[in-house]
Design a protein that fits this description.
There is one protein chain. The protein is an alpha/beta fold. Helices cover 36% and strands 14% of the residues. It contains six helices and five strands. The protein has a five-stranded mixed β-sheet. Helix 2 crosses helix 3 and helix 4 packs antiparallel against helix 5. It is globular. The protein starts with 5 loop residues before the first helix and ends in a 21-residue tail after the last helix.
Length: 187
């Protein structure tokens, strides 16, 4: 069985934009954003367990990794990666005596326009190695990658088939309600 190369898969999914050394640095910026302007990605299916432990770690050591977000049309931001950190920070901010320490947090703001499939892949990539996944999360992850692959083929965009192999055999599932997907507009 061939070994899976995540870098090659990601570059194949994003095409020429995957060559970071040739990109304009304006694609991403780090900004301090109000915790209140962030919202969860509705497609996030990963559990938010262990928040008290994570909050204690952040309180002691600070936020070690910015939250990755993308802006919305209404001036808010959807979390791409960092749902647990965001939830732990909200928990910290709600504690007495926290003051404004957690009012604004560092975020990596994505500026590039990408397909819904690549947004989904970024969510999965940001979560797959950060914690021990439950069997249900591993299954859902395989299902979502399979759906991303199917959806990207219908859009005639490149999505490496090897991604589906990485997370096991694709599960039979209805694709998400992305514009242009087979289930768009139906239940």
């Amino acid at each position: 069985m061939a070994k899976f190369d995540i870098t090659a898969a990601f570059q194949a999914a994003v095409g020429a934009a995957g060559n970071v050394s040739k990109l304009d640095t304006s694609r991403e910026t780090i900004e301090y954003i109000s915790l209140d302007k962030l919202e969860a990605d509705p497609g996030n299916f990963y559990s938010l367990d262990g928040l008290e432990h994570l909050a204690a770690n952040i309180e002691l050591c600070g936020l070690q990794q910015p939250i990755r977000v993308r802006s919305t049309e209404d001036g808010r931001y959807v979390i791409v990666s960092g749902h647990r950190r965001w939830s732990a920070l909200k928990l910290l901010r709600s504690t007495e005596g926290s003051g404004d320490r957690w009012a604004n947090i560092p975020c990596i703001v994505e500026r590039d326009e990408v397909s819904p499939e690549l947004r989904e892949l970024r969510l999965i990539m940001g979560n797959r190695d950060t914690r021990k996944l439950s069997p249900a999360e591993v299954s859902k992850q395989a299902q979502r990658v399979s759906c991303c692959s199917t959806s990207s083929k219908s859009r005639a965009t490149s999505f490496p088939a090897v991604c589906a192999t990485r997370w096991g055999q694709p599960a039979r599932c209805p694709p998400p309600n992305w514009p242009g997907s087979r289930s768009s507009g139906s239940t």
